[in-house]
Amino acid sequence: MFKAALLDFDNTILGTEQGNFKAFHDAMHDIYGHGLRVEDFMYFSGSSWLDIFRYITGKYGKVTPEYLNQSFIDKKADFFKKHGVVIADGFKELMERPILRAIVTGSSRAEIEIFSDVIDFSAFDTIVTNDDIVNGKPHPEPYLLAQKRLNIAATECFAVEDSRMGITSARAAGVFTYFLRQFADEDHTSIADRAVYSMREIIF
User: Fold this and answer.
1) Which of 42, 102, 150, 204 has its CA 20 to 30 A from that of 122?
2) Which residues, at least 6 apart from 99, have a Cβ–Cβ distance to it below 8 Å?
């Protein structure tokens, strides 16, 4: 029986992908006068935020990864303040279940706290962000750290993810992994333990 739910954040708890791309595009334009180019987009779609900031600033120079990161966060906050955000179907019900709960995200703490008005972060027993780890997804480190903090075994928890990198990370850590279709751009059913459209379908 599962004792803990380990949830990805972007495009899992909240439907943020469109806003993320828009915010990054705008940050790039402000700094470099252009958005992501074709070769950049290919790298963008398979890397962590930290790697993306390092790649872009390494390629185009001008600013530090930290500066680009902050510009992105500012643009993202502006976007979602204006447009709002969709919360995953079934998230509220899942949070009411009597189990441990964790966020395991490749985003920074500052980035997820943009949404502190819609998500009660105090309801989670631990939050693992990009600030806490050396190796981001698809490395298993984020999920291994969540297990350590919750003092549970891999077999006692399940993960909910939307991306190939996230699913790979969770499964590499030995965690039963649901692929959540609701906000996903691609179908990753084949690499997950189970696919669901809504968190309402998660049975444990």
Assistant:
1) 204
2) 2, 3, 4, 5, 204
Q: What's the mean pLDDT in 81-86?
A: 95
- Boundary (domain end) residue, out of 83, 100, 133: 83
Element containing residue 25 per DSSP (H, E) = helix 17-32
Q: Are residues 11 and 23 in the same domain?
A: no
The whole domain housing 189 covers 4-15+86-201
Say yes or no: 108 and 177 in one domain.
yes
Phi and psi angles of residue 120, each rounded to the nearest 5 degrees, phi first: -85, 95
Domain count for the chain = 2
Q: Do 191 and 171 form a contact (C-beta atoms < 8 A)?
A: yes
Nearest to 57 by CA among 40, 75, 82, 74: 40
Query: Whose CA is closest to 4, among 106, 154, 174?
Result: 154
Q: Which CATH number characterizes residue 120's domain? A: 3.40.50.1000
Task: Indicate if 74 and 115 belong to the same structural domain.
Answer: no
Rounded distance between C-alpha atoms, residue 8 and residue 161, angstroms: 5
* Cα gap 93→21, rounded to integer Å: 29
Reported as a single tens digit per residue, the pLDDT across 7-55 is 999 999 999 988 988 999 999 999 999 988 888 877 765 567 788 899 9
- Rounded to 10 degrees, the C-alpha dihedral 118/22/39/180 comes to 30
